[in-house]
Amino acid sequence: MLKLYIGNKNYSSWSMRPWVLLKQAGIVFEEVRVRFDSFDAQSEFKRTIGAVSPTGKVPVLANADLVVWDTLAIAEYVAESHPNKKLWPTDAKARARARSICAEMHSGFTALRSHCPMNIEAHLPDTGALIWRDQAGVRADVQRLVDMWSALLEEHGGPLLFGEFTVADAYFAPVCMRLHTYALPVPAHIAAYVDRVRALPGVKAWIDEALAEKDFLDFEEPYRLRR
């Protein structure tokens, strides 16, 4: 059985992507949650993950003696191992486009990720308003998302980016969490896409379990002293 190592569901956006991908696709896997205590070399988290992956980071997918790290590599491995799930679009051009936007998310949107860390439990509209006012990079990142998602939803007719659920929707699920937590302003059709992603069974399961964690980590909370 596949074994997926993840961090805290409330905070770990990277862990969310492959977990949602597997869950939404109905692929059976064992979850191994490794709590974030700190990211120091001698932390319990680093020692546990370091024994599994050379990067010492989550997520990590293990299958018998095979270990796959990095979210894009995990997505590709899962898609290749389960071709019947059609986790990438079947059309070659759409498939290339989906891979392109996932790679863009993987390496880009740094302002949004830096200033709006994922925090599913929190509701921070006032903080989001200040970030929106003061951080031009966040505004630029959100505009890129609006342009990208609008074009794809129009081209493929929704309800998701390429019509049916694909890796791309799993990849942008943590972004949907950020837009919701910080109440960043987006057009109505983009807000509707965010709501549809949040309502996907695989995403909803992650959200519910994130809310149940009750684990406040100060180093993941730049905007709050406590819950």
Automatic annotation (TrEMBL):
Domain GST N-terminal: 2-86
Pfam families assigned: GST_C_2 (PF13410), GST_N_2 (PF13409)
Organism: Acidovorax carolinensis
Gene Ontology BP term (one): glutathione metabolic process
InterPro entries, per the entry: Glutathione-S-Trfase_C_sf, Glutathione_S-Trfase, Glutathione_S-Trfase_N, Thioredoxin-like_sf
Gene Ontology molecular function, alphabetical: glutathione transferase activity; maleylacetoacetate isomerase activity
Protein name: Glutathione S-transferase
